[in-house]
Design goal:
The structure holds two protein chains of two kinds. By secondary structure, chain A is an alpha/beta fold. In chain A, 47% of the residues lie in helices and 11% in strands. Chain A has one domain. Chain A has seven helices and four strands. The termini of chain A are far apart. In chain B, 45% of the residues lie in helices and 20% in strands. Chain B contains 17 helices and 14 strands. At the A-B interface, helix 3, helix 4 and helix 5 of A face helix 2 and helix 4 of B.
């Protein structure tokens, strides 16, 4: 099972697709659920307090607006866990949307920069495109490892990289 | 049922997602204090994808498109509200563009009062209180704001951050004035009020109604059992058009106070759009106090110096109250005259107000300049030079809050 970051990060359709292939979707909904079920806070509707934009400083500098940093306090920890990602470009609002395009730009960059497998697909505009869209996502999810490698099992490409450095 | 009848004012919150910035509880707390409730105009989610073309402003962020869709719902009456609070993140260019255009759109297509604000995670309920109080007053007390003539024997006290002003009025005339520096809020108010009563020759018991305004309005209003305790946006705009004799039609009021400034667009004596600056002291009366001290002149002499100087002779590279004053003092060492420095100080304050506040209100003539800083002659001159329009400074312009409070308090004499 791989932890799969989805974009839009609150897309129910993507989340469902990932789950159907027995991987774990990393979603905004779960993050918000944790926030709102924490009874020690009282900051409706999603319990973001002034402390959260400060947590967001881990991902964006202080001159970045508070709304971006507040969103990143929820999304940033998901990116840290990410083992694979599906990015859907140009989705309509009802497919999923966090509302702020600066946050979208930042989260997509951080995911791409992480070096994990990323599938980038365009939102379909016809039935044929839709079939192609689902097939691409299905193939990508099938290609991901079902079980995470053991902690003591070193990735095979690590040693050649060290040799290169020595040379 | 109107806001006036129900007491509860419904304010549409049109924001870029303030719930993600940690400020939502502060918004809610400020609204609760003025007996208002935020509502979220309902829209069809599919409209978020098309609103850019409909509205004419195409932006990438979904919540900014949601703001436009909600503004449209308010203007078209799909959602009934008494006021609109438009707010986006501080430092977001895309948000600032949408905030300004949505504000203009609502103002152009409806009579609904609107305020706009850019927030950080540090925005507090206290910061928003005066703004929301003004917004709810416009919705709730239009009948009171329609008052154009002072009747009976009334008084007004303006407890400002720097000075406390008091006036006593009888039958539409100022008959007593008091003006003291604010030290201890209650004692300063008592002293200013006593001065005004003494000059008027009346006893405190004879005053039929009292109004209070300014930073200390709640404290002194409760202490003196005032009939009216009111924030300074509505009081000052009322006082300004009353003293300037421009109660009918459009006007713009700029109030440069000791700690903050207000720019208010007024229509028939009732404020429409307004902004309050309060982040930087470099654009306030405090700047004039400090530069007077560095020049070794009384603040009352600064204006006369400024009108004789040329601000162009001084290289000022910061608006900051610390670095800006350092620039002014350094220029003295390079040969600038105190007159030039005084002129540059006036220009600096006015330029900041122009750049940071006047962009958010539609400047319509007459431009009425009030507040203690309006008495520094260099200030109206610099403002007139910058805007290329005539600036009106009414008599007793520094007493604007106290006069506005006494005028509005007379509404309680008849009641």
């Amino acid at each position: 099972m791989a932890k799969v970051f989805i974009y839009p990060v609150n897309s129910l359709i993507l989340s469902d697709l990932v789950e159907r292939f027995e991987h774990k979707p990393l979603t905004m909904m779960n993050q918000v659920r944790e926030k709102v079920t924490n009874i020690s806070l009282d900051s409706p509707p999603i319990n973001i307090t002034p402390e959260d934009p400060k947590i967001g400083l881990r991902y964006a500098a202080v001159e970045v607006p508070a709304g971006v940093r507040g969103r990143m306090s929820l999304i940033g920890p998901l990116i840290e866990e990410t083992e694979a990602a599906i990015i859907v470009e140009n989705p309509p609002a009802n497919f999923g949307c966090v509302g702020c395009n600066r946050t979208n730009e930042l989260m997509k960059y951080l995911v791409r920069d992480k070096g994990v497998p990323v599938l980038e697909v365009k939102y379909p505009e016809s039935d044929e495109d839709a079939r192609d869209f689902v097939n691409k996502i299905a193939a990508f999810l099938e290609s991901l490892p079902e079980e995470k490698p053991d902690e003591d099992e070193k990735p095979v490409d690590e040693e050649p990289a060290e040799k290169e450095a020595e040379e | 049922m109107s806001a006036e009848e129900s007491g509860l004012v419904k304010i549409a919150l049109v924001s870029c997602g303030s719930e993600y910035a940690g400020v939502q509880p502060e918004f809610e707390a400020a609204a609760a204090r003025v007996d208002a409730k935020f509502i979220y105009p309902e829209i069809d989610i599919a409209s978020i994808d098309t609103i850019g073309k409909d509205f004419g402003l195409e932006v990438a962020s979904g919540d900014l498109r949601l703001m436009m869709a909600r503004a449209k719902a308010v203007v078209e009456g799909t959602t009934k509200v008494d006021g609109v609070f438009i707010t986006t993140c501080f430092r977001c260019a895309e948000g600032a563009i949408v905030r300004n255009e949505v504000r203009r759109y609502i103002h152009k297509h409806s009579e609904i009062p609107v305020i706009s604000y850019s927030f950080t995670e540090r925005t507090s309920a206290g910061t928003l209180l005066t703004r929301l109080e003004a917004l709810t007053t416009i919705a709730r007390r239009r009948h009171l704001l329609a008052r154009e003539v002072q009747t009976g024997l009334t008084a007004g006290i303006d407890s400002g951050s720097t000075t406390t002003k008091a006036v006593v009025m009888r039958d539409n005339k100022i008959i007593g004035k008091g003006w003291v520096p604010t030290t201890k809020v209650l004692e300063s108010a008592d002293e200013a009020y006593s001065q005004a009563l003494k000059e008027a020759g009346v006893a405190r018991e004879e005053v039929q109604a009292l109004g209070t305004t300014g930073y200390g309005r709640f404290l002194i209003g409760n202490h003196f059992n005032a009939q009216l305790i009111q924030e300074e946006i509505t009081v000052n705009s009322k006082g300004a058009v009353y003293l300037a004799g421009r109660q009918k039609g459009s006007a713009t009021v700029i109030d440069i106070g000791g700690m903050d400034n207000k720019a208010i667009s007024v229509e028939d004596g009732i404020p429409g759009m307004f902004t309050m600056g309060g982040i930087c002291a470099g654009a306030s009366g405090r700047f004039f106090e400090m530069i007077s001290k560095r020049l070794g002149v009384e603040i009352t002499e600064l204006g006369a110096l400024a009108v004789k100087g040329m601000q162009e002779n001084v290289n000022m590279n910061s608006y900051c109250i610390v670095f800006g004053i350092q620039s002014l003092v350094n220029s003295l060492a390079k040969g600038a005259t105190p007159e030039d420095v005084a002129a540059a100080a006036c220009y600096s304050v006015v330029e900041q107000i122009y750049e940071q506040q006047l962009q958010e209100v539609d400047v319509k003539e007459p431009l009425i300049l009030v507040g203690g800083s309006s008495l520094i002659e260099g200030v109206p001159k610099a403002l007139g030079d910058l805007l290329k329009i005539e600036v009106l400074v009414p008599e007793n312009s520094h007493m604007i809050g106290a006069v506005g409070a006494a005028l509005l308090a007379s509404g309680y004499v008849e009641e």
